[in-house]
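Quick review question:
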């Protein structure tokens, strides 16, 4: 028997109903009762969408008002003491306080840490545990929502984070201890939840264990086996779901667990699929994630069908069909797109359409030759061929240019030591030079004018006039602060990736292609559908104009090739490294044009550099090699006198510090204010040769740092990095801040730099 099912469905709603409902509640515009009602409607729509697509089982437990891991922490009673929860129950406002630091009513407190969900662009709320953590069933959403779906007549499969993955993701802020010591008590609560689900009449439960695709210590593998032996319940079947990669050395562990089913990622783990099909016990269900849950491209149904038939011949037990991972990472419904180019649209599939693909594959595998199924396969084959041969996708000129890249294009004319002396003479900057990282506050009026221009409600001349006035304001303010290296403020940019994608060939944009990033924050990634090239300069006119307003150095601002790649939906018909090189060549042209326009400081932001690391360390070096090359390809076209900056926003450098040095940027700016400069330890243990701006205040907070606070932080920085190579700057762009706090903070920052110069630390 072949079963089609969902490993997880987006929770935001096709029109971001979740975002709108929760933000209205946070603002006090709606009641909690109205919020709960809105959630019920979103879930009902999701279940109906999956059922209408033809899935045999719909997912329950994948809905959350903020984050599914945060939901599970609430379920387990993992609420840090600072949130002062009274009694055994965790309420919705406490969940919001844990996620964002405040509830609609009541005092604020420090939110729990937010971390990238494996190597995706989704962020989860990190569980905070203690050495004597006591778990207790404290939030009943999983039970209530399962009952809700069953009462509505759906065949359901509840989805729960697996106990081993949950513990692996958990952190302690106060003490160092073996997290596995908590496993016994944790499993007791899992058993309680599973028993309640079984009492509702649930047949199957999915426990997500994506850490089986990571490098795991042997003690964790051993505990996996023991944990699942303890989770056996008569009459309830458990499927563990692995995703985001291959099982590799964890394959035997996963297949030997005392469970009734195993789900594997057949996209990233395709090379293992035959081995798994042969090895998995015939009395176990094998669930094959054959439809890619992380992208927006149509699945090649005929190719997938051939693969599934091969698996069916190798595995003598029951076969289930699904997506590689949760569809959380895909937009909801392609049918909402009314302005997207018809040809490009025909190549795409969002979550709703992917459910149809899953169901159609299962039906075809069962021998269904109905007109409906045949039509799905026929239209799919036409779309696959259209995309494969489209001249819009494939451009010989771009491919030829990539093929002509040689090693000399990755190297600056001189080593950093030589460049530093040339730049010192050319820029004439003081010790502890000050700058910002690109963006300044984007007011409602700026957004209004951008939207009006995009909707053709104002002329290009009127738009340019408005933006130039904003640039004038920003330049005047920076001169008033007495900053050393200025920026134009980026008023014309909506998003650091979308802005460049709109000006490059090979990118497409949706109206409603939203995916959840964290909490109520949704993003609309560009789609890289074809070979990438730059038809025209993208930033030079704005930068030239800004430079004409001041005698101080004006910094050109670009988003790096790797970040554009990582924060888009990339094409799946070529290697990511090759896509990145195409984008890097386009940026190389832009860097060269900026230099010709007498912009002598150019920042190429790469915040995605570390987050792009593969999950397995054995795959790191290959990635780091081409990631570094893509940056150097963009940057190495300039003369020694042009200073190249880069900015990275993440919190762990130790693993990749040598590769960061290999990028050979003249100046790197990083986020260190939240860690009290502790992150600079990596630069202390590794002799980083170039200049560093460690970020002296946290722009994510409205707090205005004092002069003394910033001076003290820079003194700490100078104890790790030679003072003569230190810059003074915020830790990120100022786009989301207000002018009042920005003015006060930057005045203090410049005063701190002047005090440091007087102290003579250099």
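Suggested answer, residue by residue:
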């Amino acid at each position: 028997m072949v079963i089609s099912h969902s490993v997880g469905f987006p929770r935001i709603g096709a029109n971001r109903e979740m975002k709108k409902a929760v933000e209205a509640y946070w603002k006090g515009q709606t009641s909690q009762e109205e919020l709960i009602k809105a959630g019920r409607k979103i879930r009902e729509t999701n279940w109906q969408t999956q059922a209408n697509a033809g899935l045999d089982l719909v997912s329950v437990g994948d809905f959350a008002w903020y984050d599914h891991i945060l939901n599970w922490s609430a379920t387990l009673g993992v609420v840090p003491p600072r949130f002062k929860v009274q009694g055994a129950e965790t309420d919705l406002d406490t969940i919001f306080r844990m996620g964002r630091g405040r509830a609609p009513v009541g005092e604020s407190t420090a939110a729990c840490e937010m971390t990238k969900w494996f190597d995706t662009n989704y962020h989860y709320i990190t569980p905070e545990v203690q050495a004597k953590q006591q778990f207790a069933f404290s939030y009943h959403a999983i039970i209530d929502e399962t009952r809700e779906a069953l009462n509505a007549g759906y065949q359901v499969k509840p989805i729960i984070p697996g106990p081993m993955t949950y513990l692996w993701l958990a952190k302690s802020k106060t003490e160092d201890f073996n997290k596995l010591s908590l496993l016994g008590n944790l499993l007791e609560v899992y058993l309680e939840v599973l028993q309640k689900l079984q009492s509702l009449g649930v047949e199957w439960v999915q426990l997500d264990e994506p850490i089986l695709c990571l490098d795991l210590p042997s003690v964790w593998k051993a505990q996996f086996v023991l944990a699942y032996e303890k989770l056996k319940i008569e009459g309830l079947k458990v499927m563990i779901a692995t995703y985001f990669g291959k099982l590799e050395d964890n394959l035997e562990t996963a297949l030997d667990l005392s469970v009734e089913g195993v789900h594997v990622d057949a996209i990233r783990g395709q090379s293992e699929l035959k081995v798994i099909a042969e090895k998995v016990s015939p009395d176990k269900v094998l669930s094959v994630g054959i439809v890619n849950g992380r992208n927006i491209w149509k699945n090649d149904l005929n190719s997938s069908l051939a693969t599934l038939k091969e698996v069916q011949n190798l595995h003598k037990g029951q076969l289930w069909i699904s997506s590689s991972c949760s569809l959380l990472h895909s937009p909801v419904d392609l049918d909402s797109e009314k302005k997207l180019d018809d040809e490009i649209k025909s190549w795409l599939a969002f979550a709703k359409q992917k459910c149809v693909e899953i169901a159609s594959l299962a039906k075809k595998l069962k021998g269904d030759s109905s007109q409906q199924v045949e039509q799905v396969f026929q239209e799919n084959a036409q779309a696959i061929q259209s995309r494969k041969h489209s001249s819009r996708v494939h451009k010989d000129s771009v491919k030829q240019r990539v093929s002509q890249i040689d090693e000399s294009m990755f190297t600056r004319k001189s080593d950093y030591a030589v460049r530093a002396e040339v730049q010192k003479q050319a820029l004439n900057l003081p010790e502890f030079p000050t700058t910002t990282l690109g963006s300044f506050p984007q007011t409602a009026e700026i957004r209004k004018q951008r939207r009006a221009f995009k909707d053709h409600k104002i002329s290009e001349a009127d738009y340019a006039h408005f933006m130039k006035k904003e640039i004038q304001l920003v330049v005047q303010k920076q001169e008033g602060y007495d900053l050393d290296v200025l920026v134009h403020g980026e008023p014309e940019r909506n998003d650091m990736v979308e802005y460049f994608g709109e000006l490059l060939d090979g990118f497409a944009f949706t109206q409603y292609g939203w995916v959840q990033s964290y909490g109520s924050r949704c993003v609309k990634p560009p789609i890289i559908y074809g070979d990438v090239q730059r038809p025209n300069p993208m930033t030079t006119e704005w930068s030239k104009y800004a430079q004409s307003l001041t005698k101080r150095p004006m910094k050109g601002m670009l988003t790096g090739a790797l970040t554009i790649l990582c924060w888009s939906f990339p094409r799946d018909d070529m290697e990511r490294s090759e896509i990145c090189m195409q984008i890097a060549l386009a940026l190389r042209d832009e860097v060269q044009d900026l230099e010709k326009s007498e912009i002598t400081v150019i920042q190429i932001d790469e915040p995605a550099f570390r987050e792009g690391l593969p999950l397995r360390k054995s795959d790191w070096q290959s990635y780091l090699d081409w990631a570094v090359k893509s940056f150097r390809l963009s940057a190495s076209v300039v003369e020694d006198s042009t200073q190249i900056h880069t900015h990275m926003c993440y919190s762990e450098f130790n693993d990749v510090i040598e590769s960061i040095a290999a990028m050979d940027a003249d100046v790197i700016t990083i986020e260190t204010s939240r860690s009290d400069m502790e992150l600079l330890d990596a630069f202390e243990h590794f002799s980083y040769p170039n200049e560093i701006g460690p970020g002296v205040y946290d722009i994510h907070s409205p707090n205005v740092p004092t002069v003394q606070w910033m001076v003290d932080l820079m003194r700490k920085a100078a104890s790790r990095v030679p003072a003569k190579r230190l810059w003074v700057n915020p830790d990120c762009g100022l786009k989301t801040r207000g002018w009042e706090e920005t003015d006060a903070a930057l005045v203090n920052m410049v005063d701190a730099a002047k005090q440091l110069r007087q102290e003579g630390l250099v």
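Why it works: The chain has 27 helices and 19 strands. The chain has a mean pLDDT of 94.
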